[in-house]
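Hey, quick one: can you model this chain's 3D structure?
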Amino acid sequence: MPPFYKQVLLREFSKRIEKNSRYSMRAFAKSLNIDIGALSQILSGKRRLSYKKACEILDRINIDLSERKNFFISLSEEHKKTGNKNISKNLQKILQDTKLGSAKNEREDLSIETYKIISDWYHFAIMELTFLNNFQGTPEWIAKTLGITHAQAKLGLERLLSLELLQDSQGIISKVHDKIISKDRHITNSALKKRLKQIMIMSIAAIDEQDVSERHHATMTVPIQVSKIPEAKRRIDSFLNELADFLEADSKEEVFEIQVSMFSLQKNRSTI
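Sure thing. Here's the predicted structure for all 272 residues.
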């Protein structure tokens, strides 16, 4: 997995490509006020990012305080790991403060931050595509199959490989873990909300775009006892796992999304 500060830079680059498919690494470097060659070397690990330049870059991209802190922590750790004897006093202090902090919280942050990196729906689709008999691990094939841009497919594939969610064994790309879930899924962090919204938008589009023989949309309105919600959620999770086991048991031909929703229709919940 690449250091967190590199993940932040790659994520920012990916976000800009999504807004403009013709956006280039050269344009990205210019926006960060850094030479294109220097940026390429930093992302490839051939050059270290200085504390001063890191501060300048962070002033030009929009990240919250928690991510800014993790950005500097990962940068300071890489400086030490690579044996940099001239590590700045600022980075030395960050590294020392990290040692005194809670390792448990850092691990939890890493889980959340990693999910942010792959929160776009196509990352999960790419992982499942690897199970298809006709899978081709090229950006061209992935882009055409999922209807995404070549840049999204290329960056998505590289990101999943760098995070070790996919592995490349002699040119054969495969999924590393059987199931990928967010440990924070019940708290509904912003990354999870983003993916859920994307899936729902695609589900709405499928109503008009896909034949009813290849999709299923069902809904039911019911009055309930609110105290039963936890058990209802448990049963839904159990049903989804059983259905997935049934569908995945034989030869894989296409990747489908299964999505179940349950929510209150009452706008004024004070009456409950």
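One thing worth noting: Confidence is low (pLDDT under 50) at residues 98-110.
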